[in-house]
Design goal:
Layout lengths: L3 E13 L7 E13 L3 E6 L5 H8 L7 E6 L2 E2 L7 H5 L2 E4 L13 H13 L5 H11 L4 H4 L9 H15 L3 E5 L7 H18 L2 E6 L2 H7 L2 E6 L2 E7 H6 L4 H8 L16 H14 L6 E5 L2 E4 L3
Parallel strand pairs: 3-8, 3-9, 6-7, 7-8
Antiparallel strand pairs: 1-2, 1-4, 4-5, 9-10, 10-12, 11-12
The structure holds adenosine-5'-triphosphate and magnesium ion.
């Protein structure tokens, strides 16, 4: 497909438990999806379902146990031997923005290093820095002279987006990007991301627990449960016509303003796991991941 930037194919990551034990957990199990130019994809699932592991595999912070990841049709672990070249185009923003900046350097120095390490010296370096800061709604005069600890979490996350803009990245992996922001700043940062994607064709893999934010921002939704991709599709289709019992449960659990919480409605992990197992058992004649309508696929059996 011409617009495909990234392809994740049959991706698997197992972790050994304990040093001597041969026991393994399948953190990520046979996952396949694509990221297209300008697309915002949300990756949603319970804690421990494998979301961050997928992000780390794409960012080459982990090696897959099997399966492949392609960026522009090239296997990232085989053909991009020079990681720096890869990181010019594929970048990550993690939950804790404080950990992403060297605390000893002022912001202007940090941006200088980006040019030094990734872009090379450029005559209009200062102009590019100012433009990108203005684009994320920050005042360069104020920001560039600060140390990271003098800025708020929201300001640092905006800086990370500005960094991605300067580098003109193709794919941004945003793991719980806005979880530490207050509600109004969240919407600002989300709107900013959406605007950048539309204008610059940047794609974002938006990893989140928050279904409402996922609905608000994404074109495509991926739902993970216990390392498996259980439902994938155009966001409106997944939200309006959920098929997998885990997706159904997730959507039911969104608090609804105006409706009081029904105390009798419980979402215990054991109950959900049981329901999911029953679903796989009852639909085992359907093999694996099946298209239920155009742009909407569901895992019917393991
Ligand atoms: N380095 C590691 N060694 C061993 N197990 C790991 C390692 N990293 C992750 N895991 C395990 O893999 C599974 C998936 O973890 P992951 O961090 O991808 O989940 P997640 O969906 O991002 O969860 P959360 O929403 O809490 O961030 C978990 O069971 C976790 O304990
Ligand atoms: Mg995580």
């Amino acid at each position: 497909m011409p617009n495909t930037l990234m392809k994740v194919e049959n991706l698997q990551k197992d972790f050994s438990i304990g040093i001597l034990s041969k026991k393994k957990i399948h953190a990520v199990n046979n996952i396949t999806f694509e990221i297209k130019k300008g697309e915002i994809i949300s990756l949603i699932g319970e804690s421990g379902s494998g979301k961050t592991t997928i992000g780390k595999l794409i960012l080459r912070l982990l090696k897959p146990s099997s399966g492949n990841i392609y960026y522009k049709d090239k296997d990232i672990n085989l053909e991009y031997k020079d990681k720096r070249k890869y990181y010019k185009k594929v970048q990550g923003i993690f939950q804790d923005p404080f950990a992403s900046f060297n605390p000893l350097f002022k912001i202007d120095r940090i941006f200088d290093m980006i040019f030094k390490n990734f872009i090379g010296e450029s005559k209009n370096k200062n102009e590019k820095i100012r433009d990108s800061l203005e684009c994320v709604g920050m005042n360069p005069e104020f920001i560039l002279k600060k140390y990271p600890h003098q800025l708020s979490g929201g300001q640092l996350q905006r800086l990370l987006i500005a960094r991605a803009l300067i580098m003109d990245v193709d794919v941004l992996i945003a793991d719980e990007l806005i979880s530490m922001l207050d509600a109004s700043t969240r919407i600002d940062v989300l709107n900013l991301l959406a605007k950048i994607c539309k204008e610059k064709g940047m794609a974002v893999l938006f990893i989140t627990h928050d279904l409402s934010l996922g609905y608000y921002i994404s074109d495509t939704t991926l739902i993970m449960h216990k390392g498996n991709l259980v439902e994938k599709g155009e966001t409106s289709l997944v939200y309006n016509n959920p098929i997998h019992p885990y997706t159904k449960m997730l959507l039911k659990s969104i608090p609804d303003i105006g409706n009081k919480w029904n105390k009798n409605e419980k979402f215990l992990p054991e109950d959900i796991n049981k329901k999911v197992e029953e679903f796989y058992k009852s639909s085992k004649d359907k093999k694996g991941f099946i298209e239920v309508e155009k742009n909407h696929n569901v895992l019917f059996s393991l």
